């Protein structure tokens, strides 16, 4: 398990342990709180780093399956992400790993021009050249983004602002659902190996998201379309991504995904478990 102390990897560690699967987690600091939490949950900690190929080889010795996910918000950026993703695949193939599940991104294959989409597509293409059974999961936007883009309080309620036209829907997913699909792939490699599957849990427009916030908080919530030009001045990568949402967007087959997993987490369900409405200051 790579990225075990991150959101996706941590969710998968918990899911695999819940299913009774022995799980090893690669961690840089076994004494860090996140690593200790994994150990307390029952994971075996393996000291290593994705930039240390010797530690990756040691970690994969005798391992049946590998979950591969790399962060792009690091000092090395997307170049480091791509380098690490390629190295993990190479070492997995050379170590006799039976099945690798790679977490990419929805739309990676569609020339989005978004740097952290293109890096994942480059890793995907490299994995295809290896003698290795690979499942590629392509998650859509994470619910966790609402920890950064959260409604603000105004006198008459809440306002959810996003850089997305009100009529345009965007697909979203919970990291717990990414973990469930990844665990399914490990449980049934015959059905999942060799596939590239875009995954989502819900699909909503901005006003529909605002309605979900209103139902959870009991506070009137309206949607506000924010001009993307202002975002572009401070976060070019984020602006490029929202521009792509507006023009192209994700294409996960939600009806089929809900057939496979009827309990997919909706935005409203996620908010009830993870969000508290801001208090109006007197």
Write the layout of secondary structure elements.
Elements lengths: L6 H12 L5 E4 L5 H9 L2 E4 L5 H8 L4 E4 L8 H18 L4 E5 L11 H14 L5 E6 L1 E2 L9 E3 L2 E6 L7 E4 L1 H13 L1 H4 L3 E4 L2 E3 L1 H12 L3 E5 L2 H5 L3 H12 L6 H7 L6 H8 L8
Parallel strand pairs: 1-2, 3-4, 4-5, 5-10, 6-9, 8-12
Antiparallel strand pairs: 7-8, 9-11
Helix pairs in contact: 1-6, 3-4, 4-5, 8-12
Account of the protein in words:
Helices cover 43% and strands 18% of the residues. It has 282 residues and is an alpha/beta fold. Strand 7 and strand 8 (157-162) form a beta hairpin. The termini are far apart. The mean pLDDT is 93. It comes from Streptomyces uncialis. Keywords: NADP.
Class computed from helices, strands and strand pairing:
alpha/beta
Give a short account of the largest sheet.
Answer: 4 strands, parallel
As a whole number of angstroms, the C-alpha radius of gyration is 19 Å
Number of helices: 12
Strand content: 15-25%
Order of helices and strands: HEHEHEHEHEEEEEHHEEHEHHHH
Low-confidence stretches: none
**Beginning-to-end CA distance, first to last residue:** 48 Å
Major beta sheet, strand line-up = 3-4-5-10
Global outline: globular
Protein name: NmrA family transcriptional regulator
Organism: Streptomyces uncialis
Keywords: NADP
Family: Belongs to the NmrA-type oxidoreductase family.
